[in-house]
Amino acid sequence: MKYDIHVKDAVIKLSMFGSFNLDIARAITKKIRVIIESLNNQPFYILVDLSTIEGGTPDGFEQGRQFNIWLDSQNLKAKAIICHSPLFRSISESRVRSSDIQLIKYFNNEADALRWFDELSLGNVN
C-alpha cells in the first residue's frame, strides 16, 4: 500500500493506492494528526482520494473510525472524498463513520471537490 499526504493552504490531501491494514492506517493517522496539531486550531479541509483504493482490513477501518472520533473535536470545516466504487464507499461509511458531526461529500474528481471547498468560503484553496 502506498499513500501520499500533501498540505496546500488550508487543505490536507491524502491519496491512498492499493489496500491498507492497521499498520498503514496508524501511520497515516499519525502523520495527519501532527499536521492538524501544527495548525494551532486554524480551520482546515481534508481531501481524501480513494479513487484507486482496493480495500482494507477490519482493523484498518477501525483505526480510521477512531481517528474520525478524534477529528470530530478538531476545527475541520469539511471533508471531500473521491471514491469511484459504490461498494467501497458503503463499506467505509458503515465501518468508519461514528457520528454526523463532519460535513462530508463524495466526488468523482479533485477539481469538483476543491470547488466545493471554495463554495464553503474558507477562502482560496486551489
Give a brief description:
This is STAS/SEC14 domain-containing protein. Helices cover 41% and strands 33% of the residues.
List keywords for this structure.
126 residues; SpoIIAA-like_sf; STAS/SEC14 domain-containing protein; 4 helices; five-stranded mixed sheet; alpha/beta
Low-pLDDT stretches: none
Let me know the average pLDDT: 91
Strand order within the widest beta sheet = 1-2-3-4-5
- How large a portion of the residues is in β-strands, by DSSP E? 25-35%
Domain count, please report it.
Answer: 1
Helix amount, in percent? 40-55%
Number of discrete helical segments: 4
Tell me the CATH superfamily.
Answer: STAS domain
Overall 3D shape: globular
CATH topology call: Transcription Regulator spoIIAA
The run of helices and strands is EEHEHEHEH
Structure write-up:
By secondary structure, this protein is of the alpha/beta class. The chain has a single domain, classed as STAS domain (Transcription Regulator spoIIAA, 2-Layer Sandwich). Helices cover 41% and strands 33% of the residues. The chain is built from four helices and five strands. Strands 1-2-3-4-5 form a five-stranded mixed β-sheet, sandwiched between helices. The longest helix is centred in the N-terminal third of the chain and has 17 residues. This is STAS/SEC14 domain-containing protein.
Topology (elements, then pairings):
Elements: E1 2-8, E2 11-20, H1 22-38, E3 44-56, H2 58-71, E4 76-82, H3 86-96, E5 104-107, H4 110-119
Parallel strand pairs: 2-3, 3-4, 4-5
Antiparallel strand pairs: 1-2
Helix pairs in contact: 1-2
Protein name: STAS/SEC14 domain-containing protein
Organism: Psychrosphaera saromensis
InterPro entries: SpoIIAA-like_sf (IPR038396)
